[in-house]
Write a structure and sequence with these properties.
- By secondary structure, the chain is mostly helical.
- It has 2 domains: about 280 residues, Orthogonal Bundle (ABC transporter involved in vitamin B12 uptake, BtuC); about 130 residues, Winged helix-like DNA-binding domain superfamily/Winged helix DNA-binding domain (Arc Repressor Mutant, subunit A, Orthogonal Bundle).
- Helices cover about 75% and strands about 5% of the residues.
- It contains 18 helices and 4 strands.
- A two-stranded antiparallel sheet has the order 1-2.
- Strand 3 and strand 4 form a beta hairpin.
- Helix 7 crosses helix 10, helix 16 packs across helix 17 and helix 16 packs across helix 18.
- The N and C termini lie far apart (about 85 Å).
């Protein structure tokens, strides 16, 4: 094989593994069972050891069968402990896979010393060696790992398509699925069996690190980018491909920049997945850290705008002469907001024509007075409602009403008016506009 063909088969193996894991990982993320792949990848050790003891062979098929059986048992035991013992899902998972992993170590130490377990291979697999183990097909020598992972991926795709509705409903709400006549338990065990088979099929080639990463990272990243399951699945598959392709390129190219030899392809694929997740975590339009901070910032500006209108209106109530204005220092002392937020709030109010400059400061315009009057009306209706329906001291009514006034729409204001029987004054004796 040429160097280029070796790279193609390595990337192909990584892509197939990533696609197989990412497809199922979406449902694991939704079910809050992301670490099931990690549990199974550790728990298959006794299956490998027992398969060697029975067959005295390290050929792929006995090892695959032994690991697959234990992988399925891991899922079954975890669910059984969770349901019967009423143990939290993560704790049940931890009990099962650590126990099975320990049993596997004991078997190997006591009776299967001839089994060669390379810790490095367990962690990051031997994906670079995949092109060396081939099988002929139509005159081509195709790596056996590609055959295995292709079959696993096709089975996963077929079963997800056939049971998409059942998996979707049972992942979001098992009780609803049962009410609708769907067997949620059957869907759970089907998913766990597919996870076990996929884990075992990927384990030898790419190791536990990439298997765990591909079960979790693509689905979790897609979850940050969309709220629709079918889009989430598509995005996760694209992310899986990006991890495999980008990881191999990075493993070959990046170390050379510092004069170092190539690094682990499987490990770098997982690193690329982590970087993609970090980008989504920061820049996701809806759930990203940056968007949330930006939303909170502009929410603070909006609340400050409304607070400024409310302060100016209250001042006018006690000082009816409206042409003297209010100096910004009073607003700064009344509302503990930052100078940038306060400056933006005043600038937006002036641009909207709700406040204007006066001889000694700022004052409400006719348009701003209408808005401010509605805010004060909402505030004092909330004070009346809270005072009527809750046992709260009168001097504690202002703070909750001030928060609620910013989230009250016209329909809620009408409902408040009905519940408070159209009061003319608030509990403090002030007129309700």
């Amino acid at each position: 094989m040429t160097l280029m063909s070796l790279d193609i088969w390595i990337v192909t193996t990584g892509v197939l593994s990533a696609l197989s894991c990412a497809l199922l990982g979406n449902f694991l993320v939704l079910r809050r069972m992301s670490m099931m792949g990690d549990a199974i990848s550790h728990a298959v050790l006794p299956g490998l050891a027992v398969a060697f003891l029975i067959t005295s062979s390290r050929s792929n098929m006995p090892m695959f069968i032994g690991a697959g059986v234990v992988g399925v048992l891991t899922a079954l035991f975890t669910q059984w402990i969770h349901r019967v013992g009423r143990v939290e899902q993560g704790a049940a998972m931890g009990v099962v896979f650590t126990t099975l992993f320990a049993i596997g170590l004991i078997i190997i130490v006591q009776a299967a010393d001839a089994v060669d377990l390379d810790p490095g291979c367990v962690l990051y697999g031997a994906i670079e060696l995949v092109p060396l183990d081939t099988a002929p097909f139509l005159g081509l020598h195709i790596p056996r790992a590609v055959w295995t992972l292709s079959l696993v991926f096709l089975v996963n795709v077929l079963l997800v398509i056939l049971f998409y509705k059942e998996l979707k409903i049972s992942s979001f709400d098992e009780d609803l699925a049962t009410t609708l006549g769907l067997n949620a338990s059957c869907m759970h065990y089907l998913l766990m069996i597919l996870v076990a088979i996929t884990t075992v099929a990927s384990f030898e080639s790419v190791g536990s690190i990439l298997v765990i990463a591909m079960f979790i990272v693509p689905g979790a990243t897609a979850y940050l980018l969309t709220d629709r399951l079918h889009i989430m699945i598509g995005v996760s598959l694209v992310i899986g491909i990006m991890c495999a392709v980008g990881g191999h390129i990075a493993a070959v190219r990046l170390p050379a920049w510092w004069g170092l030899p190539d690094t682990s392809t499987a490990g770098m694929m997982a690193v690329v997945g982590g970087l993609l997740f970090f980008v989504a975590l920061i820049a996701s339009p809806r759930h990203g850290v940056a968007s949330k901070l930006l939303h909170r910032f502009w929410l603070s500006v909006r609340i400050t705008r409304e607070d400024v209108l409310g302060i100016l209106y209250r001042i006018e109530e006690f000082q009816p002469v409206r042409n003297h204005g209010v100096v910004p220092r009073i607003l700064r002392d009344a509302k503990q907001t930052g100078p940038v937020i306060r400056w933006l709030a005043l600038a937006q109010l002036m641009q909207a024509g709700k406040v204007k400059k006066a001889s000694s400061g700022i004052q409400l315009t006719s348009k701003g007075r209408v808005h401010a009057r509605n805010l004060i009306r909402t505030h004092r209706l909330w004070e009346s409602y809270i005072e009527k329906h809750f046992v709260i001291p009168i001097d504690h009514l202002h703070a909750p009403a001030e928060r609620l006034e910013h989230v009250t729409d016209p329909d809620m204001q009408k409902l408040l008016l009905e519940k408070t029987t159209n009061p003319q004054k608030d509990p403090h004796g002030k007129n309700i506009p």
